[in-house]
């Protein structure tokens, strides 16, 4: 998978328009359009800003990950200790407990 394909997936995941992504990264809309149209990747000097805007690490963006059939990105995530604790705890919960936790998180994010 091309890096640019991951970028467009992440733009959508972050609910950004191409114009908003352009404004936040300082990369022209025509350059971004070229990535899609010509199936090319961004130059190396743009990667760090792209990762900052899309909230991913350079490793996540540049790794050999792929987007699965269900539209999720298959990649290794760099987690800090708190995120690792939460993820491991979530995986240990029973189905109903997971549903409750997801409901609580949804409510917290709406505030």
Spell out the blueprint of helices and strands.
Blueprint: H1 3-13, H2 18-25, H3 29-38, H4 47-54, H5 58-62, E1 66-67, E2 73-74, H6 81-92, H7 95-110
Antiparallel strand pairs: 1-2
Radius of gyration: 17 Å
Report the count of strand segments: 2
Report the sheet with the most strands, covering strand number, pairing sense and barrel closure.
2 strands, antiparallel
Structural category is mainly alpha
* End-to-end distance: 37 Å
CATH architectural category of the largest domain: Orthogonal Bundle
Biggest sheet strand order reads 1-2
What proportion strand?
under 5%
Question: What is the assigned CATH homologous superfamily of the largest domain?
Answer: lambda repressor-like DNA-binding domains
pLDDT < 50 stretches: none
CATH topology of the largest domain: 434 Repressor (Amino-terminal Domain)
Count of helical stretches: 7
Helix-strand topology string: HHHHHEEHH
Give the overall average pLDDT. Answer: 86
Helical content band: 55-70%
Assembly type of the chains comes to single chain
Molecular shape:
elongated
Overall tally of structural domains: 2
CATH class of the largest domain: Mainly Alpha
Pfam family, one: HTH_3
InterPro entries: Cro/C1-type_HTH (IPR001387), Lambda_DNA-bd_dom_sf (IPR010982), TransReg_Diox_bact_type (IPR050807)
Keywords: DNA-binding
Protein name: Helix-turn-helix transcriptional regulator
